[in-house]
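Lab notebook, bench 4. The sequencing result for the construct came back, and we need a structural model before the next group meeting so we can plan mutations. Quick request posted to the team channel:

Model the 3D structure of this chain.
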Amino acid sequence: MPSAKIARLTDRGVVKVSGADSEKLLQGLITNDLERLAQGTARHAGLLSPQGKILFAFFALRTPDGFLLDVAAAKTAELVKRLTMYKLRADVTISDISSGFAVYAVWNDGAAALTQTRTCLHFDDPRHPAMGIRWLAEAPPPPDKQVVELAHIDYDALRVRLGVPEGGKDYEFGDAYPHEADFDLFNGVSFTKGCYVGQEVVARMQNKTVVRKRVVKISATGPLVSGADVRFGDIAIGRVGTVDGTRALAMLRLDRAVEALDKDRNLTVAGRKIDIDPEALAHYRTSIAAKPSSSLQS
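Done. Here's the predicted structure in token form:
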């Protein structure tokens, strides 16, 4: 069996949403579409504020009696409280069951074969095929000579390589729109489902505005530091998030990045020149060409 890579994600928790009305409740609240979602598969989604900002980001895994939400451990209690506020008289039970689960990411060529040897809940990461498979295991898996368990930093390095953001690390909960957190690029939002909290704002950004701030990949000739400002001259136009050595993710004002390139000026982090993912810049330029300048999103 080809080598698989596995990391326990100690910063993840699990919220259970069960009962006859569980799909109806979530379908009317979250950014993605749960209708016709097969048992054992998951959607990447968010729960927004009425103003369209991301309050929670999670995977919703279909189970026989409802859903399990794989969510940041620091947000589980708050998510339970928020969902309970919305449930009213719905036949739904909402609980934090994090203490009973260990969350793992498994990737590389042998991920599927390894998963077949385990008895645990699992699902393909819906954001990107190379993100592999997530396990919700009731106990840590037994040692396997064919698998070297890696640190969380190795999983973060995978996200950086693929450009996949994570809430609380690459964008702040309550302060970023789904487009800014790349939900539209990584299967986190449906533009065809019915209404949900914040849906009007998300639809407007999709159809009428140029999104000028996003999480993008950056690189430098030397080590980068999480939390450092990305600067255009003396002006901070972004902030570094997850770091993998000389590569990182950063929430960045793309309009200012394009301006710097057009003026043959450097963007820097801690005085060190950085490069921006050319695909992100090309995507932004294409968006500008397709929409009027009056649609720029602040």
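Residues 278-290 form the longest helix (13 residues).
Will bring this to the meeting.
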